[in-house]
Design goal:
The chain is α+β, with helices and mostly antiparallel strands. It has helices at about 25-30, 50-60, 70-85, 125-130, 155-165, 205-215, 230, 260-275; strands at about 10, 15, 35-40, 45, 95-100, 115-120, 135-140, 170-175, 180, 185-190, 195, 220-225, 225-230, 235-240, 245-255, 255.
Length: about 280
Amino acid sequence: MSDAPKPLVSIDGALVEGVATVPITDRGFLYGDSIFETFRTYEGRAHALDRHLARLCRSADALQLTLPCDTATLADEVRALLRAADAAAGRERRVRLMVTRGDAPGLADDGARRVIVASPFGGHPEAFYTQGVHVVCVPGGRSHASTKAGSYLASILAARSAKAAGAYEPLLVDDEGFVTEGGTSNVFAVVDGTLWTPSAGMLPGVTRGLVLELARAAELPVREAPLPQAALASAAEAFLTSSTREVMPIARIDERALDVGPLTRLLAARYAETVPDRLDRG
């Protein structure tokens, strides 16, 4: 029998041994009526937990979903699950914190359910960081893009298109020709010496926000504005950000090759250096 670490699950504050289940009447299962956050551990501790919980609250407000408990309780439940996961043994975890609207017939609201899953996380291949990844532009966009909502069909379809094209990640392009975000990431481009990231039609990622703070602290020119696909096509360098990817260079956009440039390397290094400052200490 394999001794590989298994996902650990907490449902409504209780650690679940064995197979974890939720009722088939759960609205997250039936309708994608849910919100979630994904983050990772370093040295067994959650990274930027306070920022993720703050965004969870914003998503809940936007979707008129009442959280089942306060964020202090959610944080304690994350910590308890990570202790049970024995992350101190050198096994990092990817944590997904979900809140659904609970069980309900029709469109009624019968109280929220919370689920936390801590899965083994071994990181991404080193070559993704030293050589970069291939992305392709795909038409599309998510409804309620500024919320971390459970319905990810647009991103799933875009990811399938990217995979069919032999690419690692799709970049979503809206009807007006603006690049908004990656399928599960944010995108940055260096255009005419300025660090440019889309400002609308996307989820404001936690890592995106941290990178913007680091860029401004380094006194780099920064532009948060709609990013035309044509401008992206002229970028000298580009990269993806997300909680599990950190800062991941882009080596190819559609058929155009890019170098892993100096600003990408600088921000990746600054991000890595400051990770310990953001680890949960609760």
